[in-house]
Each structure stands twice: as C-alpha cells, then as structure tokens.
Amino acid sequence: MSIQTVPTTPFAGQRPGTSGLRKKVTEFQQPGYLENFVEAIFLTLGDPGEGEGRTIVVGGDGRYFNRDAIQTILRMAAAHGVARVLVGRGGILSTPAVSCTIRKHAAFGGIVLSASHNPGGPTGDFGIKYNIENGGPAPEKITDAMFAHTQALTSYRISDAGPVDLDQVGKTRIENMVVEIIDPVADYAELMARLFDFKAIEALFAGGFRMRFDAMHAVSGPYAKTILEGMLGAPAGTVVNCEPLEDFGGGHPDPNPVNAAELIAHMEGLDAPDFGAASDGDGDRNMIVGRGIAVTPSDSLAIIAANATVAPGYKGGIKGIARSMPTSQAADRVAAALGISCFETPTGWKYFGNLMDANLVTLCGEESYGTGSHHIREKDGLWAVLFWLNLLAVRGQSVEQVVRGHWARFGRNYYSRHDYEAVDAAAADAMMTALRERLPELAGQSFGHYRVALADDFVYTDPVDHSVATRQGIRIAMVDGSRIVLRLSGTGTEGATVRLYLERFEADPARHDIDTQVALSDLVAIAGNISGLRHHTGRESPTVIT
Ligand code: G16
C-alpha cells in the first residue's frame, strides 16, 4: 500500500447547489470527476494537526455508484491523514443517521452520498455533500471554498489499497487509517427512543392501530423496519418497499402525493389504515397521510410546533421555529400564539444550522417535505413520522381530526407548489431577470381582489454570523397575507426547474373544505400574468403539482 499523487485537470460546473453536488451518474463516472471533488473537500478541510486523530463518517442512500464512490473516498481519506472513518454497513447511512453519528461520535465531519429524491440507477442521478462537525450541511463559505479548489486542481492524492469489505461490521485498515464498519441503524434508533414516548406508541399498535410506511425502495427501509416493526411492535408488513435498491425499483423516491401515488391511493381505499407515511431516497424527507387526507409539509410543521410538548424530548417547550421562505406561514401563527420567534430563511437546510447551534430555534421545516429539530442538524423523515405517531397516541384522534382541529384554531393556509421541470435554463433566467425588473412597480398594484403589499427578491441576513444570502427567490406578498413566490431550484440536474409557490390564508372554518387548486386559482393566474412564465418557458402547465 502506498499513497499516489495523480495528475488531474479541473472539471467545469462542480459548484455545490442547494444540497451538495448533484449530477448524472454518467458525469460522476468520468475518470477523475469524483476524485477531483473529494480532493477539493479535503483541501478545504486542510490537513489534520499532529495527533488530532480526525474521524469522519461516510455513507449513502444505497443508490447506484454508492459503493464505488465509498471505496474511492476511503482511499483518498487515508491519503489525507484521516485517522478513522465510520462507514455504515453496506455503505448505507441515511442523511439523518450521518448527522446523528457525527454528533454522537464527536466526528470532524461526514460525507453523504445521495441525490436525495432524484431518481437513481445507471442513468439516474448521484450526489455528494459534506457535513461539518455539528452534523449539518456545510455552510456556503465552505462550499464556495470547495468550488474554488475544484477549479484550480492539478492533482489528487489517493492510496492504492484494495477495496474494503463494506458488508461486515468490524475494523480494518487502509494505510494508517482505521475503517470501522458500523450498524447503520443503532445510533439513530437509540436517539429516537429518547425523544419519543415509545411505550405510548407501542400501546397504540397493540390496540390495533394500523399504519403503512412506504420506504420507496430507498434508505429508510432498514430504519423504519427496525424501529416501527422491531421496537414498537407494528405488525410485519407495516413497512413496504423496505429494501434499498440501487435504482429505487425504477421509481422516483420523492414522498409527495404525485410520486408516492400508490400510498395515496391506498390511504383513500376502503380498507385504508389509520396512518400512512413515506420517506425519500436518503431518508430526510417525509410525507404524512391520514385516511383520505394528505397533510402538507407546511401544516405538518405547524402542527408539530403546536403540539411539541406531547413528545418527551420536547416536553419543556420549544425555543423558536424556522421555516424556509417559500414554506407557508402556518408555523408563524403557531409561533405567535406561543410567544416564540419564527425565522424565515432561504431554501436549504444549511441555513437552519446556525439558528439551532445558537439555541434560537428547536423546530425547522420546509415546504419540500422536510421537517426536523435540533436533535440533529439535518431534516429527518422518520423523526417526523414518529412525532405524528406519538401525537396520535397521546391525543387518541385521527390524522384528519388533528388537522381540522388545527385549522379551526389557527386558520388554514391553503398551499401548493407548481414545478416546471427541465425548462431551458436561459429562458428561465430571462424570466427571472424580467420579473426582478418589474418588482419595484408592483407594490400597491391590484390584481382582481388582491393588492400587492410587498414585492422583492428575498435577501437573508443570518442573525448569528451576519452572512448575507441574496437573490433567494421572488416574493410577492398580498395585503391579506396571501403570497406568490418564484424561484429556480438548486437541486435539479437537467436544465432549470422553475418553482411557483402559492399560499392563501382562510380563517373561516366554514371555508376550509375548498379544493386547494380551486382556492389558489386566482393566485395562479396572477402569477402567470406577472411573471410571463408561459411566454418565457413555452410551457402551458406545470410538470408536477404538489
Ligand atoms: C434539498 C435541501 C432542502 C430544499 C430542497 C429543495 O432537499 O436540503 O433544503 O428545500 O432540496 O431545494 P430546491 O427547491 O432548490 O430544489 P433534499 O431532500 O433534496 O436534500
């Protein structure tokens, strides 16, 4: 075994997006492509100090190329003076489990291999992101430094050691570095058992409560099976599609009513169980479904916040809430009622890290099916599902009763997101530029019965480190609190994805039964008119509505 220095040249476009570097598998398979990005990670981290004994955590969602990438990363970590690497057995670690493991073992950081909810397989997507010692995604100043390194590389360092057996728990070595293959579920399951009332949930299942958890052939399967069926006594078969597959069974592991249509249909059937849930490729997203009712992620955040004290881990109350800017303002209403702060951040879980580290917030959530708390520094799909189980067990109510009760108390924020995928990137940019130019003239204008109160391009100043993020999405807020938000996704791998977010508040319970798309139709028309979306993109209708 020896460490080699291999000459290389930069690849264009290795700039991490909303959540790490995401590209087609075929792009990652180019010789040197992965190595270059990993070299940039290690150059950004700098060499460990003498006797530092740096530990990192490595794992992924099991998608195609996961195992190959891990072998390369291990050989490069050894060449960069890492003392110990913790790797999930089979190369498996969900994103929340990586965060949990980094924190529990006081690791220096972690590398997560996933393109989240994007499809997998040889023609699908792959991704890599770096998490820092608090367990959360690297902030922008670190990802910017990584990108700068990718553009200036002339070589990378790698050990020529052979492959490590990823499937046996135990220790081995590459050069001077210890590789420890760990049970991917144990640390995470132990944390969940401390946060939630497992006895109450066990009693719920023992009483005949039925649930279906759709792991979508992705990484949550082993976690959900161990915790729900193994520790909480849910009947065998509660967790479906529980084997992580390299191509997610050909599906799109995105837990929303469109991509988890099978679960939605099941929950609308005559023999629907009491509770349904799904999680995504890397286990950080969640969808909550009751019999005949899908809970929007924005409502789920608000409901968890309003009921946080039912779970033992939050019985002392919550400090504050943070939501991404496009997420509905339902959580703001809860925060106001509780007399706590509600922070509005740009899209991207990385913006929540400082708020949680500074103990300003306990709960965070995003419209993109992400909810979580300060127990780790990533969003956490199974955590949200366990919270809901804890809530249903304590309240003895159905999902629908909980949701309707919440609307009756706080009002309903009708909410929807319209995605226009794989749009020509130049056309999408032109639309955003033209819209930005129109912003100053919009405030005060009326469109039908809506009047614009504020129109801007969202700028966020982090209250902790005072870093500033500009151009984070266009907000058009109406006088009555309704909103139109437009931004370009930072996670797509084909052209541009235009996201149009729509929100309307309705206080009157007598009007809480309108179909969501009908309730928002006026705002859709106004958004189309103001943005010229159809004109610029040539698209008549969205690709996906959630
Ligand atoms: C990632 C980020 C989330 C973000 C989502 C959508 O989620 O971690 O914070 O809300 O992408 O981002 P965009 O609208 O830019 O596509 P995940 O689950 O893909 O890691």
From TrEMBL:
E.C. no: 5.4.2.2
InterPro entries linked: A-D-PHexomutase_a/b/a-I (IPR005844), A-D-PHexomutase_a/b/a-I/II/III (IPR016055), A-D-PHexomutase_a/b/a-II (IPR005845), A-D-PHexomutase_a/b/a-III (IPR005846), A-D-PHexomutase_C_sf (IPR036900), A-D-PHexomutase_CS (IPR016066), Alpha-D-phosphohexomutase_SF (IPR005841), PGM (IPR045244)
Region (Disordered): 1-20
Reactions accelerated catalytically: alpha-D-glucose 1-phosphate = alpha-D-glucose 6-phosphate
Single GO term (MF): phosphoglucomutase activity
Cofactor(s) recorded in Swiss-Prot or TrEMBL: Mg(2+)
Protein known as: phosphoglucomutase (alpha-D-glucose-1,6-bisphosphate-dependent)
